[in-house]
């Protein structure tokens, strides 16, 4: 029986109906040199629109495998993974690229800004691979994360926290329904961790679905729900709070 | 953004791009030089081999019919059959007219030569020839041009009263130049009482026993105006191959047209037979085959050098690109995570290499043209016939540079695009 989600929009909607990410018995097996490893084993859970979920687990628990699949960089070897209602298994590689550009905004632990492009150009790069560049929009995205005044600076001229904010601006520029954050504060000092955490809170408040991989209990505590992984198995924690809005 | 990424790839990877560009430049320089030389080497080798004489001989068709009694050919030397000198103008109408570089018609006659104050030489072989006859484009042709090994003491005949005798005759009859003599047809009344021997010919063959006069003089003496019995032709030809040896009349119309439109000695001879009624034109195999063999060997060597140069350039590009792509794996992973398709990323890398190939190819074309010009001058007697710049080669060379750059960079690009972007981003790849 499907879980019932408390939403401010419609009390009667089921969790499955609201799910922006839905996994049904998803497994991912890697084979090589005669042996096979099941990195993710029979995972079933869903994430509804506007939800903030933290994925936790020790190294080798299958977090990266799960994130790769949620980020449309990989596909399950068994089970069904639907993102925004679309079954990834039915998509061609080209469709998957397009889908990723439309639906997922990545926030990386290492920021992964191109060092020879300015902050503004780094944001515009995501526009370029999505559709077409628009400097005004890119500048607005930087201003949204408080980096408007540093638009023309190279990544090497920015602090770690500032680089992460540019990374977040880049993730937001194409207005994706899902933000996938992989240890977003893992490389930041306390002060910058707080800035990024507040930024993620703001984004959640404005209805973004956030899937965040973290080792940091403080960051995990900000999420509404935790999905713990151990040896490829998924343990979903109870929903931590109400979903603010549905954003499809 | 595309141009920005393109610009940055050149600005940031200057050394790698320079190395790849240099490899392409050297490859295209060698190819341009080889192609430029190859386009003119045929002409030069033809000129060099022209010292061995004509490569096509035209005789009257009736002359080809052997008249034998008891196995002995009793047909006279002249055969009694003639071609028309006036028909030689038709050589300018054949498909490969511009490939004909020399024409030497001749009319052999028997003559008696009476040296003033000396002996009379009877039954000598006299040959009427062209000397400095205008061909086309202001060039002159005739026997001296087709027999470059002939050495003349004195000068060639210019009119009806002038003769050249072979060295053997001159020695035998103590002839010096200039010397007056009488010339007549044996047993006939017609002759020229007063001729001047202006030259003595050294040829190293039996021509040293002959008397040479203008073709017109021989025709008048013989009483056969406009008659010639043989024409030596020097033509620029394509080396003979199996297709050249086909009988055109047994080929399909399409193949016959291809055969006809290739400058084989055979097809030029065929066209001469078509143009001049009653003529039988045959290639002189010895000269033709020498020319063909030399050209084939040189062409083969040039192709080998060109292919080796391009292959080396391809490997160099491949090595430079492998490192360049390795350095940019992080970028590739990021682009993939941002939704860039493999095609879009490959296009970016190919555009970088394409641009590099166009620039390096164009410079290689200029360098190769200069090299060909210099080599042409060194190989062929200090005078280069290779044009300084052959614009037809530019697109060919640039296209080859593009092929080398694309082929050389494809393995690295393919390998990079196959990598798992998440592993690249984690730094695990």
TrEMBL record, chain A:
One annotated GO molecular function: ATP binding
Keyword Ribonucleoprotein (UniProt): no
SMART domains: AAA
Domain ABC transporter: 21-247
Alphabetical UniProt keywords: ATP-binding, Nucleotide-binding, Transport
InterPro entries to which the protein is assigned, alphabetical: AAA+_ATPase, ABC_transporter-like_ATP-bd, ABC_transporter-like_CS, ABC_transpr_LolD-like, MacB-like_ATP-bd, P-loop_NTPase
Keyword Lyase: no
A GO term from the CC aspect: plasma membrane
PANTHER family for this protein: ABC TRANSPORTER ABCH.1 (PTHR24220:SF86), IMPORT ATP-BINDING PROTEIN (PTHR24220)
Family: Belongs to the ABC transporter superfamily. Macrolide exporter (TC 3.A.1.122) family.
Descriptive protein name: Putative ABC transport system ATP-binding protein
Species the sequence originates in: Granulicella rosea
From TrEMBL, chain B:
TM annotation in the entry: 301-326, 347-368, 388-408
Swiss-Prot/TrEMBL keywords: Cell membrane, Membrane, Transmembrane, Transmembrane helix
Occurrences of domain MacB-like periplasmic core (ranges): 19-240
InterPro entries (UniProt xref): ABC3_permease_C, MacB_PCD, Macrolide_Exporter_MacB
GO MF term (any one): transmembrane transporter activity
Domain ABC3 transporter permease C-terminal intervals: 304-421
Signal peptide: none
Membrane topology: Multi-pass membrane protein
One Pfam match: FtsX
Location of this chain's protein in the cell: Cell membrane
The keyword Transmembrane helix belongs to this UniProt entry's keyword annotation: yes
Domain of life: Bacteria
Keyword flag Transport: no
Family: Belongs to the ABC-4 integral membrane protein family.
Protein name: Putative ABC transport system permease protein
Species whose genome carries this gene: Granulicella rosea
Lineage: Bacteria, Pseudomonadati, Acidobacteriota, Terriglobia, Terriglobales
């Amino acid at each position: 029986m499907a879980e019932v989600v408390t939403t401010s929009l419609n009390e009667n909607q089921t969790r499955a109906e609201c799910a922006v990410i839905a996994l049904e018995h998803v497994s991912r097996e890697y084979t090589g040199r005669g042996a096979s490893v099941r990195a993710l084993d029979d995972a079933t859970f869903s994430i509804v629109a506007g939800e903030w979920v933290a994925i936790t687990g020790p190294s080798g628990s299958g977090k990266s495998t799960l994130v790769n699949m949620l980020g449309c960089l990989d596909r399950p070897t068994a089970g069904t993974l639907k993102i925004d209602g679309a079954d990834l298994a039915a998509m061609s590689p080209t469709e998957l690229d397009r889908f990723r550009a439309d639906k997922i905004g990545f926030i990386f632990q290492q920021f992964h800004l191109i060092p020879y492009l300015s902050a503004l150009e780094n944001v515009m790069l995501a526009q370029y691979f999505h559709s077409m560049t628009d400097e005004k929009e890119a500048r607005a995205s930087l201003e949204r994360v408080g980096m408007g005044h540093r638009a023309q600076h190279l990544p090497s001229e920015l602090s770690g926290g500032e680089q992460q904010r540019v990374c977040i601006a880049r993730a937001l520029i194409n207005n994706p329904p899902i933000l996938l954050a992989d240890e977003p504060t893992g490389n930041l000092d306390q002060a910058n961790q707080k800035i990024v955490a507040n930024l993620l809170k703001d984004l959640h408040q404005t209805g973004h679905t956030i899937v965040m991989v973290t080792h940091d209990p403080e960051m995990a505590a900000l999420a509404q729900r935790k999905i713990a992984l151990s040896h490829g198995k998924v343990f979903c924690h109870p929903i931590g709070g109400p979903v603010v809005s549905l954003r499809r | 953004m595309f141009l920005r990424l393109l610009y940055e790839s050149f600005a940031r990877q200057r050394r790698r791009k320079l190395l790849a560009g240099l490899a392409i430049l050297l490859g295209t320089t060698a190819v341009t030089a080889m192609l430029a030389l190859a386009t003119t080497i045929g002409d030069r080798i033809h000129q060099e081999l022209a010292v061995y004489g004509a490569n096509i001989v035209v005789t009257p068709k009736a002359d080809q019919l052997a008249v034998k009694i008891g196995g002995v050919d009793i047909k006279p030397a002249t055969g009694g059959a003639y071609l028309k000198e006036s028909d030689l103008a038709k050589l300018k109408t054949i498909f490969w007219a511009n490939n004909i570089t020399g024409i030497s018609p001749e009319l052999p006659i028997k003559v008696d030569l009476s040296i003033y104050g000396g002996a009379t030489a009877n039954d000598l072989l006299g040959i009427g020839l062209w000397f400095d006859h205008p061909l086309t484009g202001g060039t002159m042709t005739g026997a001296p041009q087709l027999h470059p090994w002939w050495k003349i003491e004195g000068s060639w005949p210019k009119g009806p009263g002038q003769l050249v005798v072979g060295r053997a005759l001159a020695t035998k009859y103590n002839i010096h130049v200039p010397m007056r003599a009488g010339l007549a047809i044996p047993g006939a009344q017609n002759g020229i009482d007063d001729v001047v021997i202006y030259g003595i010919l050294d040829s190293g063959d039996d021509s040293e026993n002959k008397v040479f006069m203008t073709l017109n003089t021989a025709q008048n003496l013989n009483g056969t105006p406009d008659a010639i019995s043989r024409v030596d032709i020097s033509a620029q030809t394509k080396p003979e191959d199996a297709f050249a040896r086909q009988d055109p009349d047994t080929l399909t119309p399409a193949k016959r047209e291809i055969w006809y439109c290739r400058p084989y000695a055979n097809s030029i001879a065929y066209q001469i037979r078509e143009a001049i009624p009653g003529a039988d034109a045959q290639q002189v195999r010895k000269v033709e085959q020498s020319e063909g063999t030399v050209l084939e060997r040189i062409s083969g060597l040039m192709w080998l050098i060109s292919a080796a140069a391009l292959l080396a350039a391809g490997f160099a590009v491949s090595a430079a690109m492998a490192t360049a792509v390795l350095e940019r794996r992080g970028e590739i992973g990021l682009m993939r995570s941002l939704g860039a398709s493999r095609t879009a990323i490959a296009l970016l890398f190919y555009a970088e290499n394409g641009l590099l190939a166009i620039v390096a190819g164009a410079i290689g074309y200029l360098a190769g043209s200069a090299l060909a010009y210099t080599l042409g001058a060194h190989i062929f007697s200090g005078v280069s016939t290779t044009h300084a710049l052959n614009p037809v080669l530019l697109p060919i060379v640039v296209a080859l540079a593009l092929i080398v750059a694309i082929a050389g960079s494809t393995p690295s690009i393919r390998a990079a695009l196959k990598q798992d972007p998440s592993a690249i981003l984690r730094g695990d790849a």
